[in-house]
């Protein structure tokens, strides 16, 4: 089954790249085709009407259980294709939201907090009539999945964390920058600097099939609405920086599995650090075992020769480990 899933990934990646070939992408990715139909959940917040995009993928042979996938900061639902297929092949219904501020969802000027995003997702589940879920979060999505689990433990059957960020408190070693300074940096986004960041931060070695991730992340920079996108990116960076979850891992009360690439060296705000500071932080081969000890009963699964996105870099190994531990 896994080989069939893997063999389909190449076609899906090529398809995603084709749909992202336009030099300019809208900031809500209208010209990026997602692997499954996208619906929109209306939200009223801070006197604004906004929409959260999501995919609701139902299996051919349902087992009565649901998984909800939370994406990372620089991504959207489009990069979960192989994970969705692995879960639906086992009978799981899969809900894949683009968080507000990301992907096809509204780029709203609101106060961004993990608490509020968690509430949006809970309300979506309630509207869909889903009472219990397994929550899986990658990168920033791991921070959100942790917050969701802490807020709504009665709704969570299991917590799956894939290279979550926030395993350390960035405020203690990443220098503070004003939103205005961060905004100026975001406005400099280009294909070249996004690709350089992805090459050095996300993967142990670059492959051409990863280019579609860069095309989507950088394609929005040529939109006339990019200043709005850049401002929202700053607001969500501040959310990550100012709202750590690492002090609350011991309060998690649901079964948890932590998946990490042993070569992951992700640090939010890495560009602001000296080489010495970079060497002291963001070392997932150290942070993974340390974090697993903090979470009661947590199972740690590590992948050799893998960086920040195991489900893309080592898909066959990751999917087998994922389904074996669901």
From TrEMBL:
GO MF annotation terms: hydrolase activity
Highest taxon of the lineage: Bacteria
Pfam family, one: Abhydrolase_1
Leader sequence segment: 1-20
Alphabetized Gene3D superfamilies for the sequence: alpha/beta hydrolase
Residue ranges constituting the AB hydrolase-1 domain according to the UniProt record: 66-313
Protein name (Swiss-Prot/TrEMBL): Alpha/beta hydrolase
InterPro entries on file: AB_hydrolase_1, AB_hydrolase_fold, AB_hydrolase_sf, Epox_hydrolase-like
Alphabetically ordered keywords of this record: Hydrolase, Signal
Organism placement in taxonomy: Bacteria, Pseudomonadati, Bacteroidota, Sphingobacteriia, Sphingobacteriales
